[in-house]
Amino acid sequence: MDANVVDLAIVGAGPAGLAAACEACRWGLSVALLDEQTATGGQIYRAVDAASKKRKSVLGEDYAAGAELTRAFAKSGAQHISGAAVWNVGRDLKVNYVRQGANQSLQARQIILASGAMERPFPIPGWTLPGVMGAGAAQILYKSAGALPSEPVVLAGCGPLLYLLASQYLQAGVKLKAVVHTTQASDYVRASAHIGGALRGWRDLRKGMRMLNHLRQHGVQVYAGAQGLSIEGSEHAEAISFTHKGQTRRIESPLILLHQGVVPNTQLSWSLRAKHRWNDAQLCWEPETDEFGQIEESGIYIAGDSRGIVGAKASASQGKLAALAVAAKLGHLEAGDRDDRESAVREELRKQLHIRPFLDALYRPPAAQRIPQDDSVVVCRCEEVTAGQIRKYVELGCQGPNQTKAFGRCGMGPCQGRLCGLTVTELIADSRGLPPQEVGYYRIRPPVKPVTIGELAG
Questions:
Q1: What pTM does this model have?
Q2: Which of 25, 82, 331, 434 is deepest in the core (most CB within 10 A)?
């Protein structure tokens, strides 16, 4: 066999990618897993193998359990290509990546994309100031380097991660000035329609209740149902202001951590010209796939949160299902064996997804925090394009995100639209009075990651 050809190439070493690799190796496939980080685990299990006992204790059982998956991968026989920045995946099933400053490629018979999720943009006044960052990014700093805030911090927004990080910080000895969350009474009413699923997923529900109790026990000030969030400061963050129960509040802090959920990282699937649909429950784009995650009949599968937000455990199950489909297609798996294994994995996936509709409904980010009302708010951080400029583009005839590039370079910076894409879609849709599906998204082209001419030549 050609050393540069494998049965299965997997992009991403989070739960979906690791589980897919282990499952594929179980059935005798040659597997290469490519990931930008040096160690496996993805963002959710970042640095789990190197984490101290104390850090694992703070981050909790769900994080520590990731070590079981990383150990299984290490024993699986799969090739781990670490430090690989994948900049292109082609329909010819070739993966192009940069590693150690040199451009390299890998030919596969099938591919699984497991590029995970990213934090949803939080475009409010002041969100680009130094001292403002995502709660997920702050958590990664602790996972990878043990870095913790040295001063009291404010967490603001919505979503389970907001409360998880608050609870973890308290256990690590960090002082919290406040938790400002935007969940309204109407959100609870909407979520009540899915209470049956939440009760079937009672273990996850119990974890959430424990987090809230932890905040109460430590006397953390919690502002529920906050609106009109804004970060104040000239050179750096100085305070967060908001409206709570009809009153204007202001909390001083040099560090504001924002979060309103995560969304699929779809850059690779868009670059493949895969069809995408707007998921109105999760307010994001997701690729259209078959039941195993395959894009059309391409031999390219998507598993985990890059296919739609499902969480770590369900991502691993989706990775297994994609690997089963690949093994069967390549003739490594008899129909009976596949059916038995698939049935078991689908049952575990069904249980893992019980609570998802409830969470999607309860933690639906408010429109004002997704679609900036203030024209001065920066939307495209790379090119410093504001919400007002984009609205002006629409007045001049701009039809969608791709046209904003011509009007003002929006989405053309180093991040290639990852940080502004959703906001631009919703902002234009709102301005034109159309659903996001009709407005569309950026046309993503390789390289999907910044690559130098020297690296390409090398």
A1: 0.96
A2: 25
